[in-house]
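Record type: monomer structure entry
Structure origin: computed from sequence
Chain ID: A
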Amino acid sequence: MSTPPFIRLAHPDKLFIGGVWVDPVKGGRIDVISAHSEAVIASVAEATEQDMDAAVAAARAAFDHGPWPRLSPAERAQWLQKLHAALEIRVPELVRAWIDQIGALAHVAPFVIGGGMQTLQFTIDQAGTYPFVEKRLPFDGRGQALIVREPVGVTVAIVPWNNPFGIMISKLASALLAGCTVIMKPAPETPIEAYIIAEAAAAIGLPAGVVNLVPGHREASDHLVRNPGVDKVSLTGSTIAGKRVASVCGERLARCTLELGGKSAAIVLDDYDLEAAAKVLTDTIIMSAGQVCATLSRVIVSQQRHDALVEAIRAEMAKVRVGSPFEPDTQLGPLALERQRDRVLDYVAIGKAEGAQLIFGGGRPAHLATGYYVEPTLFAGVRSSMRIAQEEIFGPVLVVIPVADEADAIRAANDSDFGLFGAVFTNDSEAAYRVARAVRTGTMTQNHFRFDPSLPFGGFKQSGIGREGGAEAIGSYTEIKSILLDAALDA
């Protein structure tokens, strides 16, 4: 089975290692399934342990002996600008790949892929401002001190299936600008975007081994992470996967950045309009069918306003159009995978068994015979101790938790193993700041679900280690070296 006619992969049956398209050692293939039609839409090469070792060797040689880490940041930025141009031509294919693989909405996908391109450009623009070399006056006042940020080395970028281009290009851009060499390990469910990136790297003549591509399953990925030639692993994925990577990296003190799960809280204060909040909360939970790590999946509101907010959200969910991702009026498409649909439906059953009130949805849409669809779902009267309030469902399921007051709302928001994202709904920016400082989470927004690629992104607690986004992302791919000189350098 080839990729859809609109997507033109030159070597889907091969891996990209050391600047060359090569056959997988064991000749395996990975089938890619459409979330909408449930049909096989592509088949790509499967990397196993020997292929992973070959990719590490190629990246190691490129870092230890090749030109890439020895180029100036400005020179590396020029290469990244060429990569940007090569990918710009293929944006329509990247858009179609995301739609075909996970059922992303056709009228939304261009903006999300465009966001990935903007992140790449933002990183390129950091070449002239990021402090790769910082001069200081030594404590004793003699000579000159330099703080040098050097590339950490061979980096593995492990990316999930929900936003395969945006997350991969963000990791790749920061690592490459820092001077690292990279091994791309996309999710086996969504490998097409990484193939397009690898083809773009080949098209511009990027030095051999600087970028490598090895799609593979869990066992091969574990082998890759264990390889002593890998200096750093950057993973975006589940908390379970993050714990596994962290334990493996910890055994040999390899560096790692982990952007993991979330159960983000939206605190609705008493001054905020409930209909406006309901609209934002509904739009957010159906975004990418709820398959966003940072999505606002817990709503916390005062007891006296609980029923009114629940009714406002129910009314908004009743308006949601569920259907084919290719229809221009569709607001909620399918979940990406059959197992993910089943997981979400299992959580609906868990919520009912726990005694939460199922207000809306909770099943498969009757009018859709194929595809991994789940209705927008609303639970009310939820207690923080319930599993549906504690565990990441990763689907269009919203839970509403009643509390006594603002202090109780903050307590409920912090009553979680996660701390990735959050929001506070209030017209008072002073109150928003007060609540934001009190909630232990990596990002807080006021009245909206907002991302800014110029800001660091990551989590507290079991939502991860380290930050991506902003200049901080570049720093995560560097090691800091202090140099003390007897005399100041001329330049």
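Annotation 1: The longest helix spans residues 49-65.
Annotation 2: The two ends are 58 Å apart (CA to CA).
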